[in-house]
Write a structure and sequence with these properties.
This protein is α+β, with helices and mostly antiparallel strands. The protein has nine helices and eight strands. Strand 7 and strand 8 form a beta hairpin. The chain is globular. A six-stranded antiparallel β-sheet has the order 5-4-3-8-7-6, sandwiched between helices.
């Protein structure tokens, strides 16, 4: 992984962390030499992407973060084109629906409409999840090119320790790409079914739209969720590419 990707990896890790982190924590989690971590932290501090936290020797997000969220929701092509379709999908399924994007390290939920029915789910707007498990993550990854996938495999080396794990993941990604959608059972949250379909800008996948529901009340509706999620993703894609 080159210096630019390492820098962004560190920034993503700090942004996703619920508490301030130390350089040693960053080094251990991201498998980056601690001397390199210090060097890249200095660059991020100079640009105020991160800053010193109250606890001595720890770091947290910087003032740049204050500028970004409102602009994203106001100006993002994805947000502008997906809201009405997400509301429609929510009404049709009566389940929790979300728009999820990703970086090289994790998925990021950017919009969500929760079901009125109970659902124990890890997805929260702004929170990250693993990029190698679950329908949302694997659908996003399935429609990336081979070079991007290789970088993700490298980033998640500790979770994909054996060649068999990578082979199994590649097979799952191939199947998702062939069928055009992803389905998972309990991969992120126990007992939760996920169905995801890709949203494109041109030929590039930029997000997925997902339906999440407890397995006990939804296994008989999988085909319905696949159809409705696919329709929503297609309509969002059309709107995005009209802009």
């Amino acid at each position: 992984m080159n210096s630019i990707n390492r820098t962004l990896n560190i920034l993503s890790y700090i942004t996703a962390s619920a508490v301030p982190v130390t350089p040693q924590m960053i080094s251990n989690e991201l498998n980056i030499p601690v001397s390199t971590v210090y060097r890249l932290l200095a660059i991020l501090i100079n640009w105020e992407f991160i800053t010193y936290a109250r606890q001595y020797g720890t770091y947290t997000v910087g003032a740049q973060s204050i500028k970004t969220q409102e602009k994203y929701y106001q100006h993002s092509l994805l947000m502008n084109s997906s809201k009405i379709e997400l509301q429609s999908l929510s009404k049709k399924t009566q389940e929790t629906v979300a728009i999820i994007t990703s970086n090289l390290c994790e998925t990021i939920c950017v919009d969500m409409i929760e079901s009125s029915q109970a659902l124990r789910c890890s997805f929260v707007i702004g929170r990250g999840n693993t990029l190698i498990k679950g329908a949302s993550a694997k659908t996003l990854l399935a429609f990336r090119d081979a070079d991007y996938q290789s970088l993700v495999f490298e980033t998640h080396g500790e979770q994909l320790q054996s060649p068999e794990s990578i082979t199994q993941l590649k097979q799952a990604l191939t199947q998702i790409r062939q069928q055009g959608y992803g389905v998972s059972y309990g991969e992120i949250d126990e007992g939760v079914l996920g169905v995801s379909a890709p949203i494109f800008k041109g030929n590039d996948v930029i997000a997925v739209v997902s339906v999440m529901a407890p397995e006990f009340r939804s296994t008989h509706r999988v085909d319905e969720f696949i159809v409705e999620t696919g329709k929503a993703a297609l309509n969002m894609t059309k709107l995005i590419n009209l802009e």
